């Protein structure tokens, strides 16, 4: 499933450069994750890098965008066609 950044975000800018799919952007109040681009780093890393660098743990699974590993890999392939 895609991830989301909660309202607890302090806009520290740690997650933005970590996303290999450029799914993270500045929102009106907090950073936001585009569910169409988020693969939870499937295809790149073992675990989501944005979650690993977040100092306040405000990134969590998005219940509105449930996807399994196969779907995330398909999304990764579609986003990274060479």
UniProtKB/TrEMBL annotation:
Question: What region holds the 4Fe-4S ferredoxin-type domain?
Answer: 1-25, 29-64
Q: Which UniProt keywords apply?
A: 4Fe-4S, Iron, Iron-sulfur, Metal-binding
| Chain segments annotated as coiled-coil in the UniProt record | none
Q: Which SUPFAM superfamilies match?
A: 4Fe-4S ferredoxins
Query: Where are its TM segments located?
Result: none
Which superkingdom is the protein from? Bacteria
Molecular function as annotated in GO = 4 iron, 4 sulfur cluster binding; metal ion binding
Q: Which GO terms describe its cellular component?
A: cytoplasm
Q: What is this protein called?
A: 4Fe-4S ferredoxin-type domain-containing protein
The scientific name of the source species is Acinetobacter brisouii CIP 110357
Q: What phylogenetic lineage does the species belong to?
A: Bacteria, Pseudomonadati, Pseudomonadota, Gammaproteobacteria, Moraxellales
């Amino acid at each position: 499933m895609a991830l989301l950044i909660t309202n607890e975000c302090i806009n520290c800018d740690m997650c933005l450069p970590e996303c290999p799919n450029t799914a993270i952007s500045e929102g009106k109040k907090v950073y936001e994750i585009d569910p169409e681009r988020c693969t939870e780093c499937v295809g790149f890393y073992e675990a989501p890098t944005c979650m690993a660098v977040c100092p306040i743990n405000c990134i969590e699974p998005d219940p509105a965008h449930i996807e399994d590993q196969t779907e995330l890999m398909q999304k990764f392939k579609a986003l990274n066609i060479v």
